[in-house]
Backbone:
């Protein structure tokens, strides 16, 4: 029986070589390949790629990740997310508006801090709230604090928020205070009679003295 003959490859094509095994498992040769035109094609046969078996695919940037779904480089992923830039961690000129508050609302919040400081000081006194020597200092500090906060927020002074706090201070701490005025009363009758009779008696005496002094030069001549 003649020995079997080995089929020769077509002319012009190199003989195919089997893929060496990796870890005991042969590597499949039928892996889809990507052409330079951005398409996936079927495995190459001995006579070239099979026509009609290539399909276009969207190019995947290498920075987005690997085939396993994990990012290729976390540093590059951070660059691709401008919304996570450091600029968002710092307040901008419109920071108050982004928080949903107006300048008036923020001034009212700071004015409440002035009020709490004033109230704590007044509560430490607990009495003599009508003594201006004791309450003049905290009252002046409260007014100065409200005015400085208004200047910081470009608001006028006095303003409705500052007036509301000042009225509240008068209602709580000075409601029982009244203007202390000296009361005048009539003097006793004997003192009043003496004050009336003294000028009346002096008038005739002074008139007599003036007349006597006017006649004295004529007598000397």
Residues:
């Amino acid at each position: 029986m003649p020995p079997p003959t080995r089929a020769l490859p077509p002319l012009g094509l190199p003989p195919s070589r089997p893929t060496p095994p990796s870890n005991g498992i042969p590597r499949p040769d039928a892996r889809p390949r990507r052409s330079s035109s951005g398409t996936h094609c079927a495995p190459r046969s001995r006579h070239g790629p099979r026509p009609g078996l290539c399909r276009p695919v969207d190019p995947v940037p290498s920075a987005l990740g690997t085939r396993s779904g994990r990012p290729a480089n976390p540093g590059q992923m951070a660059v691709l997310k401008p919304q996570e830039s450091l600029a968002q961690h710092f307040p901008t000129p419109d920071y108050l508006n982004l928080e949903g508050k107006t300048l008036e609302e923020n001034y009212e919040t700071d004015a409440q801090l002035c009020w709490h400081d004033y109230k704590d000081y007044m509560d430490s006194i607990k009495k003599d709230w009508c003594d201006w020597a004791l309450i003049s200092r905290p009252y002046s500090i409260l007014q100065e604090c409200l005015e400085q906060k208004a200047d910081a927020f470009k608001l006028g002074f006095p303003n409705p928020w500052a007036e509301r706090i000042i009225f509240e201070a008068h209602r709580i701490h000075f409601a029982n205070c009244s203007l202390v005025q000296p009361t005048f009363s009539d003097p006793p009758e004997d003192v009043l009679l003496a004050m009336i009779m003294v000028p009346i008696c002096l008038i005739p005496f002074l008139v007599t003295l003036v007349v006597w002094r006017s006649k004295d030069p004529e007598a000397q001549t």
Summary: Strands lie at 33-34, 39-41, 55-56. The radius of gyration is 54 Å.
